[in-house]
Write a structure and sequence with these properties.
The structure is a single chain. This protein has 267 residues and is α/β, with parallel strands linked by helices. The protein has a single domain (3-266), classed as Vaccinia Virus protein VP39 (Rossmann fold, 3-Layer(aba) Sandwich), CATH 3.40.50. Helix content is 50%, strand content 21%. It has 10 helices and 7 strands. The protein has helices spanning 3-37, 43-55, 58-61, 65-81, 97-102, 116-128, 166-176, 196-206, 219-228, 254-266; strands at residues 87-91, 108-113, 134-138, 151-157, 177-188, 231-241, 244-252. The structure holds S-adenosylmethionine (SAM). S-adenosylmethionine binds at residues 51, 92-94, 97-98, 113-115, 118, 140, 157-159, 162-163. S-adenosylmethionine binds next to helix 5.
Length: 267
Amino acid sequence: MTVQAANASFGKSVKEFWHALLLIVPITLRWVWMLITNINQPQVKKSEMIWDMLSKNMDRYAQNEGLKKFEVSRDEKLKKYLQGSDVVLDYGCGTGAIALKFADTVQEIHGIDTAGKMIEVAQGKAAERQIENVDFAQSTIFDERLRSESFDVVLAWGILHLVDDRQNVINRINDLLKPGGLLISATECLGEQKTAITSLLSLLMKIGIFPIMLKFFTVSELEDAIICADFQIVQTEIMADNPVSCFIAAKKTEKTTKQQNSSKELK
Ligand SMILES: C[S@@+](CC[C@H](N)C(=O)[O-])C[C@H]1O[C@@H](n2cnc3c(N)ncnc32)[C@H](O)[C@@H]1O
């Protein structure tokens, strides 16, 4: 490696670390304040509270220089896979940034998120922009009102590294998709490589001051879980390397559909 290339690579790492700090530090400081003021709340409640807290500034955080570049790449990918006739589930929709942006590309989008305040923000934006083919609900992927084989696409953008029961969640996504339906995901694969950022996150989680319980796994572990749920991977792309963020598009296999159909026939 030339001295110039080494300097450029060092500069890139410092810049990425700085952008990550600009996100992590204010979030952590606000959380510490919340921790102090809600010291007696159980851990589960505290995790819910952090997402509610983040809802106020989620759209502003998305403008962080370190994250903004991903928006262009995200939009290209979504344009490639979304179609005008699609009925879409936006799982972990947050403040509805994706659903509202792509509402005019598809037939309808239904956003779900466990954080009530995220949903309030999303609903407010939809009403303000008079977008009628989207709706948002505070819910989980296991909500029984979500019907099997009723979606053409399930978006799981920035969510699979947050769930406890990854395999069950991916199985459920498969169940919700119509035959040949698509899972479109972007996931932080924090187990892929140890960096200053992943070590810092891990430490902050261990000592109990980083609020979000991130799950550490590799890209191939994620791919295995998706394949195991009877998907065929259509595209895998590393979108960022520190920490590793992985885009995966996967199609519900015919095998699943046939199996499901024959088990339905038996009933
Ligand atoms: C990183 S944000 C991503 C938001 C959105 N997908 C986007 O890309 O703008 C993760 C979202 O997942 C939600 N979330 C976390 N755990 C969840 C779960 N188990 N079920 C549904 N939503 C969840 C959080 O409330 C938060 O809004």
